[in-house]
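Below is the data:
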Amino acid sequence: MRQLFQYLRTGVILCLLCLVLGWTLPAQAATDIDSKLEKQVLEIIRKNPEFVINALQGYQQAKQEKLQQVQQAFLNDLKTNPESIIGDSPTTGSAKSKTVLVEFSDFQCPYCAEVHKTLKSVVEKHKDNLTLVYKNLPLTYHTESFPAAQAAWAAKQQGKFWEYHDALFENQKQLGETLYVDIAKKLNLDLAKFESDRKLAQTAVEKDFKLANELGIAGTPFLVIKAGDYAGAVQASEIESRLANAS
């Protein structure tokens, strides 16, 4: 909303000042409009609401076009240069498969826990021709999703991401500090390093979160697959058919 208000304020108000009132404004006018002039322009908007409607439609159209460009660029990279999408994210399955499945997930999301069971079965069945990539999308209303993602990242630094990942989903109702440390102990992690790495995990988790936001992903789980000639979003129930078509 703040971005929309800024757009309306600087775009609509300045355009109206220039076009409707016929004035020429300096480059920094957006920060120098006095309240009296602004009230005059707002009165013009009140009497001519079509200006606001047009501005809002233009804003939404530009936003949608930008989103489509970002999404298409992501899919193109997934097709031609999957390594750039994978980056430092954890992977399992075949290391050099032409079929790549990217999962955006939240350790506290119950739907992700269900999909986790499906994906684990799929990877075990197709471990020679499928690469699963895990990316974090901790939803803000899940209070333990970010700490859980940090703990899993710390486990990754000791080569135990997927074991830790599985344990988090299998004990999802117990997410919290006690569980994070208990899993680390059961996996025989170096606890001092684990604690240190958890503090360093924020940047990596936020990088995934930023990518998801740029792609317009609002919920979890969200799956994107590159299989054969197809690259795009997919439901867990469709993965087997996509893999069959690709082969």
